[in-house]
Specification:
With 108 residues, this protein is of the alpha/beta class. 24% of the residues lie in helices and 21% in strands. It has one domain. A hairpin with a 5-residue loop joins strand 2 and strand 3. The longest helix is centred in the N-terminal third of the chain and has 7 residues, at 8-14. The protein is globular and about 40 Å long. The two termini are 15 Å apart.
Length: 108
């Protein structure tokens, strides 16, 4: 699970972004960052998901597929509490970076 939010201001309440990486985090798209406080947060921008998230400060999100398997639309809909968008497709995996105070490590 990771935390998703549509507001950069809410990110300040969830985790402290090291100064060295603030610009990267602000500009990143389809990217999850693991912060030094062990929280995984993705800021969602420019899609129907963002409009849905604006109603809330933040929500938990899980993967849309089982670990190591391809996207299965039937499983994703069955596992979801609420479906925000009906346009499903299998795209490239999102990026995941682990951030420390001075280093960044690409996980995926």
């Amino acid at each position: 699970c990771l935390i998703t939010t549509a507001k950069l201001s809410e990110l300040k309440n969830l985790a402290r972004v090291p100064a060295k990486f603030k610009n990267l985090v602000r500009r990143a798209r389809k990217t999850t960052f693991l912060y030094p406080n062990a929280k995984a947060v993705r800021v969602v921008k420019g899609c129907a998901h963002e409009e849905f998230l604006r109603k809330f400060d933040w929500l938990y999100s899980s993967s849309a597929n089982l670990n190591g398997q391809n996207f299965d639309e039937a499983w994703a809909k069955a596992a979801a509490d609420e479906v925000v968008d009906q346009n499903f497709s299998q795209n490239a995996s999102s990026k995941i970076y682990k951030i420390s105070k001075t280093k960044i490590l690409r996980i995926r």
